[in-house]
Write a structure and sequence with these properties.
This protein has helices at about 5-15, 65-80, 100-120, 170-180, 190-195, 205-210, 225-235, 250-260, 260-270; strands at about 40, 45-55, 85-95, 120-130, 135-145, 160-165, 215-220, 235-240, 275-280, 285-290, 290-295, 295-305, 305-310, 315-320. The protein has 9 helices and 14 strands. The protein folds into 2 domains: about 5-145, 60s Ribosomal Protein L30, Chain: A (2-Layer Sandwich); about 150-320, PurM-like C-terminal domain (Phosphoribosyl-aminoimidazole Synthetase, Chain A, domain 2, Alpha-Beta Complex), CATH 3.90.650.
């Protein structure tokens, strides 16, 4: 059956070109979980939704259409990963900026189609509209390989706290773009990570496979905020050790160059999409995913009590308050 020869239908056809076939594979177990975690769960399906708004989450004078779409997809996939799941099905909504050129629209359509298909995610529907700013909206469904899910509420006293990868890259890249765009070529990896982050997208599933059963969430609003979320959800206290923070080497180099504090980027920088988790599994564990080996770094410990504390490098313990980005 052919689409009518109308602009919107032709555009939708471009998005659906190459779509992955829908597999009749229901979840292996039928759990339920309401709002409050990185994903809700209904009848075994992990469900998450993220929005990306032009001039808030992406700017096409900074990034390519492909980078903007990739960043949006990663923000959704990381939520599924943080629950120990793998993404399966997507519904995609697009608000087309009325000022976008036909080339930009076509590149976005191709990036959406290819971005989901490359990950084995079936795009089953959505909506397109036009407006004064562009926006991407995805509802993503995933499943776990077994009954184990990683929840924010799973941390227990005595667990150690870990992060995947290194910290501060996205916030540092954003700082460069906002304050010294002329220096972007000096730190291309940081700028690229902010515009289109690359993560180990099956990290959570790999953790479950290695026996992790503790708490987990992705770092979208910054480490200081996410550790407070984890502590509050689990009813525990978390202590982070400054000496153990895996601040990205290029972040350290950038901060030395501009005379900045790398702690600001490591603790309060959002859009990392790395995983923060607590477990009693030994710290010799590692992840192997599509991006190859991903390092895991121990950064603290879970204790009884409440709140989050920060052991400073030269002694002393202070409260680590949440410094989340607010969209309101």
């Amino acid at each position: 059956m052919n689409f009518p020869d109308l602009g919107e239908f032709r555009f939708v056809r471009k998005i659906l070109d190459g779509v992955q076939p829908l597999k009749c594979e229901p979840p292996s177990h039928r759990g339920w979980l309401s709002a409050g975690d990185d994903c809700a769960v209904f009848d075994g399906w992990l469900a998450t939704k993220d929005l990306s708004v032009e001039k808030t989450h992406f700017r096409l004078d900074w990034s390519s259409p492909e980078q903007a779409v990739e960043k949006h997809i990663v923000s959704n996939v990381s939520d599924i990963s943080s629950m120990g799941g793998r993404p399966r099905i997507a519904l995609f909504g697009l608000c087309i900026n009325k000022s976008w050129s036909e080339e930009t629209r076509n590149r976005i359509a191709a990036a959406v189609s290819q971005g989901f298909a490359r990950r084995g995610i079936t795009l089953i529907g959505g909506d397109t509209v036009s407006g004064d700013v562009g926006m991407f909206s995805t509802t993503l469904l995933g499943t776990t390989d077994g009954e184990t899910m990683l929840l924010r509420s799973g941390a227990k006293p005595g667990n150690r706290v870990f992060v995947t990868g290194t910290l501060g890259k996205s916030a540092a890249g954003l700082w460069i773009l906002l304050n010294h765009p002329e220096e972007a070529a000096r730190f291309p990896r940081l700028v690229e990570y902010h515009l289109s982050p690359k993560i180990c997208e099956d990290a959570g599933a790999q953790l479950v496979k290695q026996g992790v059963h503790g708490a987990c969430m992705d770092i979208s609003d910054g480490l200081s905020s996410e550790t407070n979320h984890l502590a509050l959800s689990s009813g525990v206290s978390i202590v982070i050790d400054e000496k153990k923070l895996p601040i990205d080497p290029e972040v350290l180099e950038m901060c030395a160059y501009f005379g900045l504090s790398p702690l600001k980027f490591a603790l309060n920088g959002g859009e990392e999409y790395q995983l923060l988790f607590a477990t009693d599994v030994a710290n010799s564990i590692y992840l192997v995913g599509a991006s190859g080996k991903t390092e895991i770094h121990e950064i603290g410990i879970v204790e009884s009590g409440c709140g989050v504390f920060f052991n400073e490098q030269f002694g002393g313990r202070i409260n680590l308050n949440a410094q989340a980005w607010s969209h309101l």
